[in-house]
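Treating backbone geometry as a discrete language has practical consequences that deserve illustration. No coordinates are needed to read the tokens, only the vocabulary itself. For completeness, the protein is quoted in full, as a sequence line and a line of structure tokens:
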Amino acid sequence: MRNPTMLLVLTLVVSACSVGTVPPTTSAPATTLSLAAAQERVPIDSLGVPIPPAPDTPDGPLDPAVVADLDLVFGDIGTTVDVEALGRLGNSGDARVAWLLSDLLRFVQRGHVADAAVDAFERLTGTTIIASFPWGQVTDRLIAWDLPEPPGYVDWKRRLFEFVEPAWAPFFDDADADIDWRHLSWGGVLIDDRPIDAADTPCLDGCIPALDDPGVTDAAGGDWYPDDAIVFGVVVAGEARVYPKNIMETHEMVNDTIGGRRVGIPYCTLCGSAQAYFTDAVPGGFQTLELRTTGLLSRSNKVMFDLHTFSVLDTFLGTALSGPLREAGVNLEMVTVRTSTWGDWKAAHPGTTIVAQDGGIGRRYADDPLQGRDDNGPIFPIGAVDPRLPVQEPVLGVVTSDGTAIAFPVGDVIRALADGDAVEALGVRVVTDGAGLVAETVGGDPIAAHQAFWFAWSQFHPETGIWIGIDLGE
């Protein structure tokens, strides 16, 4: 070890609204910021703008006049919007209605209807919207405030969403769904509900098409892909396969067979997160899952579903949230995905396969489909951010057997490993064979892990700890 006095410590902060960490000492290398101290901090959005205090909200049923105005606004959506009703909603004094104003602004972002919705929001909440893209700022505030939704919220919301995409109806049909409907928004594309036997056809209606059973080649056949370009690697039962980033950015979902197991691999470009789940370990009576993209988002994370049952599953956690899979209590087992370069991966795994240049479907893929779209922070609302790390900093996320979440900043880990330092926290060790990072117990047993932007990991694991390396000198 180059630096024997390197202390590797884990900071545990119990609130996503906390700022910074308490400096460690040699006598107390692990530190905790109290919840009370964290709550005293002023929350900020992803642009660093302070979020104002939340407005008061009433309890109980909506006023009948408010119900009547919501019916006027959402009852005949698509032909016209009753701007006078929007004005009355703004004067209602019931800030819970602001969630429906946010939903409307997602689809109507310019013009007199949008202006009326923003004006109503400002009067309901006592705050001012200064963004040129008001839906983002409106929704960031609502998520950060955690305002309750109004009674009957889902019924009005579904009218709007089903007008845009009728195929979303099954998601709204489950009255007991574990979906937080407040956070559900439109990602700008439609549902990928193409039949399995037509999965090699394009999405003519504007969906993001899953790539099922892609064509693959050996490492030599992958010489079309640059050695310094990013791949996402999976190893199952000794079989290694990688998925080039440019292909994953195009499809955002792959259903494949690796090591004799069926695997679903969603890639949330907005979260910088490629994940993998075994989809063949399902209760009796269910087919092997076929994961697809809904076209919806939850706090900037893609929402996926199973084509056979139209059950929504949490992309980040693998938990079934609606439909028959929710009723069966399905929680998918995660498989580690390594983020590496193609050159490093094939050097470490010479027997690997790689998805063919045309995906096996005769398609041509751009080298850089997104053109740096996600380089400067989230482009969809996420609420308040955890400022302990920059929002787009990549972290390797791990959840221990007792449910403890740990984030390992990728850059810091790579530097520590290069210097010969061990990277360990709470019984978890991060190692590499030169082709991406993996997690294991200190006893050497593998632990599922994946890489994501910090904002995404901290949203879904708000009590996560952060591994940090502190150099105290010789």
The mean pLDDT is 89. Residues 6-42+385-471 form one domain. The CA atoms of residues 129 and 137 lie 7 Å apart. The longest helix spans residues 112-125.
